[in-house]
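for the writeup, i need someone to sanity check this before i put it in the appendix. the sequnce is what the collaborator sent (i think, or maybe the updated version? ugh). structure was predicted straight from it, no edits. if anything looks off just tell me and ill rerun, i have time this weekend
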Amino acid sequence: MKRDEIKVIAENRKARHDYHIEDTLEAGLVLTGTEVKSLRGGRCSIRESYAAIEAGEAWLYNMHIPPYQHADARFNHDPRRRRKLLLHKREIASLAGLTAQKGLTLVPLRVYFRGSWAKVELAVARGKRKYDKRRDIAEREAKRRIAQAMKQFK
């Protein structure tokens, strides 16, 4: 595996449906040994997870990494423990300012390995309303129909 190769472990597809993505950034994850082994096996869920800034540190909540099967129970980790995110102080300060605004939140979009480092792609997002979701679906359907019509006439 080359240094800049990316191996995606988990992706939160529902986030793009539920939120308007305003900005994205990459953050490192602080993990224990058994968590890394479970991730390398492709086992992870970020569907219900979110990030928050507390006391000048960034944390990821509700990310589910199941216990490593081949490890002894006393060495295994709590599957839903909060995990620290590795960001620069300036990035944390700007994210704290953004999330203080009404309606903005930090949502993980995907978890992946960049080289040997576990990373998470965070999005600064604003929640969509039901009519926004319907409009997005209608636009997607219209684009699909136009593409099919163009394909027929070529």
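The chain has one domain: 6-128. The chain has a mean pLDDT of 85.
thx in advance!!
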